[in-house]
Amino acid sequence: MTADSAELTPPAGHYSHVATHQGVAYISGQLPLAPDGSSLSGEPFEVQARQVLDNVDACLRIAGTSRDRLLSVTVYVIDIADWPAFDGLYQDWIGAHRPQRAVAGVKELHYGSAVEVHAIAALD
C-alpha cells in the first residue's frame, strides 16, 4: 500500500510519502516543506529541522504507527556543522527511543533545503 496525506505537500515527483509492506512502513525523504507547499529552505536550520520532523510525524500517522516504532532513521545535512543542532532537536523529538540512525553530509538537497530525513518504522 502507498499513501499520501493532506497534512503534507503533495509529492512533487512520481512517489508516495509512505509505502507499507509486511508490517513495515517506508517513509520517503522528508524535506522542510510546509503543508501548504511553501519551502522553508530560507529559514534557519532549526526551523527547517522541526518541519522535517513534523513531516515524519505526519507520515507515521498516515501509516498508523508512531515514533516509538521507528526502526531506522537516515538524516542528510548539507553542512555537517549543523549535526549537533539536529541531534539536540532529534533527542527532544524521539525521547528515550533509540532506533538505528545514520547521518550523511551531502553537497546539496532539493529546493535548497538544509536537511532531509528518511525513515523506516514497524507498524502497530
Q: How much of the residues is beta strand, in percent?
A: 25-35%
Structure annotation, total helices: 2
Task: Tell me the strand order in the biggest sheet.
Answer: 1-2-3-6-4-5
Order of helices and strands: EEEHEHEE
**Considering DSSP H and I runs of 4 or more, what fraction of the residues is helical?**
25-40%
What's the overall geometry? Answer: globular
Strand segment tally = 6
**Rg, nearest Å:** 13 Å
For the terminal residues, how far apart are their CA atoms? 15 Å
SS content category: alpha+beta
Mean of the pLDDT scores? 94
Q: Mind describing the biggest β-sheet?
A: 6 strands, mixed
Uncertain runs are: none
Based on the model shown, name its key terms.
124 residues, alpha+beta, globular
Describe the overall structure.
With about 120 residues, the protein is of the alpha+beta class. It contains two helices and six strands; from the N terminus they run βββαβαββ. The chain has a six-stranded mixed beta sheet with strand order 1-2-3-6-4-5, with helices on one face. α1 runs parallel beside α2. The protein is globular.
SSE diagram, text form:
Elements: E1 2-3, E2 18-21, E3 24-30, H1 45-63, E4 70-77, H2 83-94, E5 100-105, E6 115-122
Parallel strand pairs: 4-5
Antiparallel strand pairs: 1-2, 2-3, 3-6, 4-6
